[in-house]
Specification:
The chain is about 20% helix and about 25% strand. It is of the alpha+beta class. The radius of gyration is 17 Å and the shape is elongated. This is Phage associated protein.
Length: about 110
C-alpha cells in the first residue's frame, strides 16, 4: 500500500482554522500556536488530497488569495514561505495601544 501523501500547512490567522471537506475536518494551527514561524502556525501531516480539495473550494476567499493559508509537501518549504510572509498583515493583528493611529489612548489618572 502506498504511503498517503501529506502536506505541511502554514496559517497566519490568529486562532487558526478548522477546515472541512466532505464531512472530514482538520484543525490548523494559527498565530496563537505555541510554535510559530513568521507569525504562522504550522500544521504537519495534513492529507494532501483533502487540503487541495479545501483550497480549490475556497480559492476565492481572501485568506487563500492573500496567502494566509498555504502548504507544501516539504515542511522546510512551508517554513521558508512563512518566513518570507512575516510582514503580510491579515488586518486581524492585535492593536498596539500606544499607536495614535488607532484612536486609542491611555486613560489619564486623576
Amino acid at each position: 500500500m502506498a504511503k498517503q501523501k501529506t502536506v505541511t500547512v502554514g496559517c497566519k490567522l490568529p486562532n487558526g482554522l478548522i477546515i472541512e471537506v466532505g464531512g472530514q475536518s482538520v484543525e490548523l494551527n494559527g498565530a496563537n500556536a505555541s510554535n510559530i514561524i513568521g507569525g504562522h502556525g504550522i500544521t504537519y501531516n495534513v492529507d494532501a488530497d483533502f487540503f487541495n480539495a479545501w483550497m480549490a473550494a475556497h480559492q476565492d476567499r481572501d485568506m487563500v488569495k492573500n496567502g494566509f493559508v498555504f502548504a507544501h509537501e516539504n515542511a522546510k518549504d512551508t517554513k521558508a514561505e512563512a518566513r518570507e510572509k512575516t510582514g503580510n498583515e491579515t488586518k486581524l493583528e492585535a492593536i498596539k495601544p500606544d499607536d495614535k493611529a488607532n484612536g486609542v489612548s491611555t486613560a489619564k489618572e486623576d
